[in-house]
C-alpha cells in the first residue's frame, strides 16, 4: 500500500444491494451521500473580501523527518503537500515520538475492530452483499481536529433554524416548483422528483407528520474564520453511527494517553447522533399511532446503522427493502395505509434514493411514488428531498427570500451569515467573472453522490462550452464561492496504514425535526460528523484527496 | 463456499506476530489454545456403565426440507449427519420459517460487525499482522445451546474448588516433578518447562502473589447426563472477550424476536468473563504495590482483548511484547524487579507461550526464564502452567491423590464426580482394552494447541506401534475415556454463511484466583465459553468438525 488517495485499494462502505452504491462514482471515500465542494476562497462579491493565501513550499520544514513505523501494527507514510499551515494543529508532526504514534496506531486499530468502527473492503467481492465479511476498519484520523468553540456553537445553534426553514420551504409547493423550473429541463432526475411532487399537489396529498433527519455541512474559512455552509442534506444523511464511534475512539485515546498527549478528552463534544436519530424515528413511529406497524428502512448500509438497532430496542420492528422490492410487494390501501406483506408501514427511512443510480428502472420510480402516496411518515418526503437541492439552496441565498419563510430577524441573520456566495448560471456578471477567475469558484451540478464538482480551469472551460452550446444544460449547475479552509498536518488511518499528510476538515451538524399537524415534537441538533481530507494539490482544490472520519477538539 | 469444515476458507483468530500462531496446526477454529477431545463414550471401567447410543440414519427426517436462503445476507446450506438426536433442541430445523432464519442471519451478522464479534480472515494476508484489516465475523451459532440448569450450576460450583486445587498443587514441586518425570523424557517441551521449574526450586524462588485465570472445559455425557471434565486450562485461557459477546448477541436476538422464537433471553446466563478477568489483573497489579508499573501482555490476540482495554480504564498501562522482545529488552534488577525499557513490570499476562511453536529459538526460552526469575506476578507461573498439563490431570484422577491437596471431603467428592476416566500408558490393562475397543478411548498427547488428539482405529494403531518400538514415547500420551455428548440440530454461522448441521457442545467455565502470602483475594467463577462443533462423522469423533462460539440456554 502506498499513498492512500492514489491507491487502487480505495475503500467503500458497502451497500447490501449491488445495484445501489453510494460510492460508485467517486474515489473519495467520505464525500459520502452528498457531493461537497472541497475547497475555495475569495468569491468576487462585495460580501467576501478575503485574500488568497500564499502557498509556500513547506515540504522542507514539515517533512524533514519522515516517520516510518516498521512494526506490524501499521506503518506511517509521508505525503508531501505544498500548503501553508497558518494555525497550530493538534498533530504537529514534530511533537510526536514515533513509538508513541506506533502505540496510538495499534490501539486505535484494535479499538475500531472491537467497537464496530468498520466498513466493507471494496477488494473483497462479497463485502458489498453480505454483512460481517470482508471488513476493514473505517478510515479515521488518529487524533481529533481542533475547531474553535465559538464557531462550533454557531453551527449547533443553526441546526434548529435550518430544521424549521426546511419545513416551511417544503410547504411552499410553488416556490419549489418555480425555483426548480429551469433545472427540471436540464436535469432528468430532478424532473422525475418534481413530477411526483406535482402529482401529490394535484391530488391534494398533505404530509401531516413530517420527519427530517438532516445534516448541514460547513467549512471554516481560514482568512475570515467565518463558518460557511457547504450544503444541507435532507435525505440519507450519512455516518451518524460511525461519527459517534470516532468521537468515542478519540476520547478513549486521549484518556489513555493523557500524560503523553496533554489533551483533554472533555474538549471533544459528546456525539449523540445515533441515539437521537433513533429517538426521532421512534417518536415518528409512535406519532403514526397504529398498534401494529413497522419501520421500513429503504436501502440500507450495513456498517452505520446503530440507530435502526436502537429503534428495535424501543419495540419498533424494522424491515429492510430495496425500492424494487417495495414496488413488487407494496400495497396501498384506500385509506393511504402502506402494507408490505401483512405489515403496516409507519415510517419509511431512506438510506438511498437520492441519486439517479438508485433508480435503474421504472420499478424504483413506481416504488417512490407509491410511498409518497401513502400515509406513512417519509424521511424524507418528496418536498423535504427537493428542499435539499443545490438550486433551492442557491435560491434561498438570494436577497429577501429567507424572509418569505421565517419571521425572526435574528434567525434570518444567523442563517445568512453562514451562506457562502451562491449564484445561478443565468447571472451573467458572475459567469463572466468565473471565466476570468475560475480559481475562486466551484461549479456544482444538481446531480448528487459526491465527486461531481468542477474546480479550477475546468470551471472556465465548462462555462465557455455551455455559452457556445446555448442549451438549457446551464440550469443543471450552480456556482459557489470556493472556500479555503485551514490546512493542518494530520495522521490519517486507512487500510491499517497511518498516513502523515496535510489536510482540511468539514463539519457536518446532524439535526432532527418532527412535527404533526399541531405541534413541533422535536427540533434538535444531534451530534456531528467531522471529515478530514487530504489536501494534496492546489489544482482542483482537494477533490482528489481521500477523506477519513474525525472528531472535533474544541479550542 | 460449501460445507464449512471441509472448506479451504477456514478462519482463524489472527495473532499479530506471525511466528506465533495458536491455530497453525488445526483446521478446527475454536479448538482454541487447548486441544479438546471432541466426543467419546463408554469407558471400560467399572465407573462408567453407559450404553453406546444407537446411530440411526435420520437424514430422511431431519433433512427433508433443505433450507436455502437465496438472499444476499448469507445462505443456509444443509449438511447430512447420521447421529440420533435424543433431546429436544432449540434449533429444531422444522420449526423455523426460512424468512425468519434469513432475518436472524442478517441481523446477527450486522450485530457482530457492530460489536466487535470479529476475527482475522486467514485468506487476507495482513490479517495476522495488522489489527483492523481483513476482518470477518467470528464464527457463531445462530441460537444458544440448551443446557440443563443443574449441571450448569455444578460446573460453576466447581470453579473455585479447581482454583484452590491448582494453587495447592503448584506449591508441591516434588509432586509436579515426579508426575512429569517420564513425560520429561518423551516430551521436549515439557522438559524445558520442568528445567525452568527446577532452577527456580534450586534458587529458592517463591511466588508470593499468585494469579490464575483458568478455564475448565466440560462435556455433558448424553446417556448419564454426567458433567465430565475435558481439561483444565491454566495458561492463556482463550475467548473470554468473544464468549461474552456471543451471549450478548443471543440475548439481543432472543429479545428482538421473542414473539417468533418464544425463548426467554433471561435463560442465557450473564457472561462477565471479560470484566472479571480485567478485575483480577488489576487487583494483581495493585497487590504488587508499586506506584509506577505496568501490565505486560505477552503475545497478544487482536480480537479477544476487551479486558486489557478494561485494565486501561483502571489506570493500568498495558504494553505488548513478544517473548523475543522481552529477551531483547528485559532487565532484571537484583531485587527481582523486571524492567522493560524504563518501565517496571507488575503483571505478566500470557496470551501465548503454551506450545512449542511459541518458542522458535533459545531467545524465547531465555525470556520465559527471565520472567520466571522476576518478582512480577506471572499469569501463569511455571508451576501453574505445569499443573495444567494432561499428565498432572491424569495423576490427580488417581485414587487418594486429591486428598494430598484438599481437606474438605465434599469438595473432593465434587471434583471426583466430574473426572472422566484417565489412564497412563503404563497401565497395561487399560492399554490392552483400548487396543481391543479403541472407539471408547481418546489418546491425548502432552503437546498443546488443539487438533492433536487420536481417535478410533488410530488409537489401536498408535498403541500397537508404541508397544513394538518399546520407546519412552508412550509417556508423551495419556488415555482418556471418550465422552459422547448429545447431538442436536444447529445453525452455525461462518464466513457469512449459515450452515444447518448436527452438532455437539463443550462448556468452558472461566475462573479467576488471586492470593498473596496471607490471604485469598479473589476466587470466583467468571463467565463461560460455549463452543458448538459439527458432528459430521462417527469416525474419529468430531475432531474434523468446525467449531463456533455459542452461549448457554438453561433448561
For the largest interface, the chains and their residue counts are: A-B, 40 and 40 residues
User: What is the number of E strands of chain A?
Assistant: 21
**Which secondary-structure class do the elements of chain A indicate?**
alpha+beta
**Shape label of chain A:** globular
Pathway (chains A, B): Sulfur metabolism; glutathione biosynthesis; glutathione from L-cysteine and L-glutamate: step 2/2
EC number (chains A, B): 6.3.2.3
GO molecular function, one term (chains A, B): glutathione synthase activity
Keywords (chains A, B): ATP-binding, Glutathione biosynthesis, Ligase, Magnesium, Metal-binding, Nucleotide-binding
Please explain how this structure is put together:
- The structure is a homodimer of 555-residue chains.
- Chain A has helices spanning 59-62, 98-115, 149-171, 173-179, 181-186, 188-202, 240-256, 258-261, 273-288, 306-313, 323-329, 362-373, 382-387, 390-396, 409-417, 428-436, 457-469; strands at 76-78, 118-120, 135-137, 140-141, 145-147, 210-220, 227-233, 294-298, 317-320, 330-332, 338-340, 343-350, 377-379, 422-424, 441-445, 477-481, 488-494, 497-515, 520-534, 547-550, 552-554.
- In chain A, strands 1, 4, 6, 7, 17, 18, 19 and 20 form an 8-stranded mixed beta sheet that branches. In chain A, strands 8, 9, 10, 11, 12 and 13 form a 6-stranded mixed beta sheet that branches.
- Helices cover 33% and strands 21% of the residues of chain A.
- Mean pLDDT of chain A is 79; it is low at 1-87 and 537-544.
- In chain A, strand 18 and strand 19 form a beta hairpin.
- Chains A and B meet through helix 2, strand 3 and helix 10 of A and helix 2, strand 3, helix 7 and helix 10 of B.
Amino acid at each position: 500500500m502506498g499513498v492512500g488517495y492514489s491507491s487502487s485499494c480505495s475503500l467503500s462502505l458497502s451497500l447490501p444491494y449491488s445495484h445501489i452504491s453510494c460510492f460508485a462514482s467517486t474515489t473519495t471515500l467520505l464525500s459520502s451521500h452528498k457531493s461537497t465542494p472541497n475547497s475555495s476562497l475569495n468569491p468576487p462579491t462585495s460580501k467576501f473580501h478575503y485574500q488568497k493565501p500564499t502557498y509556500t513550499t513547506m515540504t522542507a520544514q514539515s517533512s524533514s523527518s519522515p516517520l516510518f513505523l516498521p512494526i506490524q501494527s501499521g506503518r506511517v507514510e509521508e505525503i508531501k503537500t505544498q500548503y501553508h499551515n497558518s494555525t497550530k494543529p493538534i498533530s504537529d508532526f514534530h511533537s510526536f515520538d514515533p513509538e508513541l504514534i506506533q502505540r496510538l496506531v495499534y490501539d486505535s486499530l484494535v479499538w475500531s475492530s472491537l467497537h464496530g468502527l468498520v466498513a466493507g473492503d471494496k477488494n473483497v467481492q462479497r463485502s458489498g452483499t453480505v454483512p460481517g465479511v470482508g471488513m476493514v476498519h473505517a478510515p479515521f484520523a488518529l487524533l481529533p481536529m481542533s475547531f474553535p468553540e465559538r464557531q462550533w456553537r454557531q453551527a449547533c445553534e443553526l441546526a434548529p433554524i435550518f430544521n424549521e426553514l426546511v419545513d416551511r420551504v417544503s410547504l411552499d409547493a410553488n416556490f419549489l416548483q418555480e425555483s426548480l423550473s429551469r433545472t427540471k429541463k436540464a436535469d432528468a432526475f430532478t424532473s422525475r422528483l418534481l413530477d411526483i411532487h406535482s402529482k401529490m399537489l394535484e391530488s391534494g396529498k398533505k404530509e401531516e407528520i413530517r420527519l427530517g433527519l438532516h445534516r448541514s455541512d460547513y467549512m471554516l474559512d481560514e482568512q475570515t474564520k467565518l463558518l460557511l455552509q457547504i450544503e444541507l442534506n435532507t435525505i440519507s444523511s450519512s455516518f451518524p453511527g460511525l461519527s459517534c464511534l470516532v468521537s468515542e475512539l478519540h476520547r478513549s485515546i486521549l484518556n489513555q494517553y493523557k500524560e503523553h498527549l496533554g489533551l483533554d478528552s472533555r474538549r471533544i463534544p459528546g456525539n449523540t447522533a445515533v441515539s437521537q436519530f433513533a429517538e426521532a424515528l421512534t417518536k415518528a413511529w409512535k406519532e403514526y399511532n397504529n398498534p401494529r406497524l413497522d419501520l421500513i428502512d429503504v436501502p440500507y448500509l450495513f456498517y452505520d446503522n446503530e440507530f435502526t438497532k436502537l429503534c428495535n430496542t424501543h419495540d419498533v420492528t424494522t424491515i429492510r427493502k430495496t425500492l424494487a422490492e417495495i414496488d413488487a410487494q407494496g400495497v396501498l390501501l384506500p385509506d393511504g395505509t402502506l402494507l408490505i406483506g401483512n405489515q403496516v408501514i409507519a415510517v419509511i427511512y431512506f438510506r438511498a434514493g437520492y441519486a439517479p443510480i438508485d433508480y435503474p428502472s421504472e420499478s424504483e420510480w413506481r416504488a417512490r411514488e407509491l410511498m409518497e402516496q401513502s400515509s406513512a411518515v417519509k424521511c424524507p418526503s418528496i418536498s423535504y428531498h427537493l428542499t435539499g437541492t443545490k438550486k433551492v439552496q442557491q435560491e434561498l441565498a438570494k436577497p429577501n427570500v429567507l424572509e418569505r419563510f421565517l419571521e425572526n430577524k435574528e434567525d434570518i441573520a444567523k442563517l445568512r451569515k453562514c451562506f457562502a456566495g451562491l449564484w445561478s448560471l443565468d447571472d451573467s456578471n458572475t459567469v463572466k467573472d468565473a471565466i476570468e477567475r475560475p480559481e475562486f469558484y466551484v461549479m456544482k451540478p444538481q446531480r448528487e453522490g459526491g465527486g461531481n464538482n468542477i474546480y479550477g480551469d475546468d470551471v472556465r472551460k465548462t462555462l465557455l462550452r455551455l455559452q457556445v452550446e446555448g442549451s438549457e444544460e446551464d440550469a443543471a449547475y450552480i456556482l459557489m464561492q470556493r472556500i479555503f479552509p485551514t490546512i493542518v498536518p494530520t495522521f490519517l488511518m486507512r487500510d491499517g496504514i497511518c498516513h502523515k499528510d496535510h489536510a482540511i476538515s468539514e463539519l457536518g451538524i446532524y439535526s432532527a425535526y418532527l412535527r404533526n399537524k399541531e405541534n413541533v415534537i422535536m427540533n434538535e441538533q444531534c451530534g456531528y460528523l467531522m471529515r478530514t481530507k487530504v489536501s494534496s494539490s492546489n489544482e482542483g482544490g482537494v477533490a482528489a484527496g481521500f477523506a477519513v472520519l474525525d472528531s472535533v477538539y474544541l479550542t
